[in-house]
Amino acid sequence: MMENYRKGKNVEEELSKELIPIEILPENFLWMHVKGGTKVSNVVDFAEKALKSGEYKSVVWSGSGGGVPKTISCAEIMKRNSKGLNQVTRLAYQKIDEYWDPLLSGLDQIVVTRRIPAVHILLTVDPIDPKTNSYQQTNVPTKFWPVPKKHENDDYVFRNKRSNNFRGGNQHNRQKPKFEKGQGEGSKSNR
Q1: Which DSSP category does 28 fall into?
Q2: What 8-state DSSP symbol labels residue 173?
Q3: 154: number of CA atoms within 13 Å, CB side?
């Protein structure tokens, strides 16, 4: 039966600031709408600067469909970089109408309505009532997010690409190995 139809237009319900399903939204907040093609480092830098400057005390990260994983990543990176944020998360759905146009006369157009997942994450420096549904205080250890343990032989290195800082042990003692002439990695003597 569907061979008699051709895929037509999609009409997507747009995410909007007014439809964020978080009942405790502050009056003034920065709304960051993340899409599948959004560059995470750019939007996180922008939001962190706005929060640090005092222009905003709250940020709401929103995304739907393919943007949901990036939305969560943005919020998690911001929580890691900015201590003391409180979080409220809401899951929702975004409606998309797919139109299928008939190829044969006498057939009616078909409209298929799909609901794709969406997420809204409020991060704020303001206190939130801990009884609020889906409230999460950041930087508090849980069984899923334990306090990192120090290792005796702390020889791992974590490099933060944005700030070019090294984290881990003994980074001051780390140097590239020096090779004598003819002893480099690609030299004939090492083959």
Answers
A1: S
A2: G
A3: 14
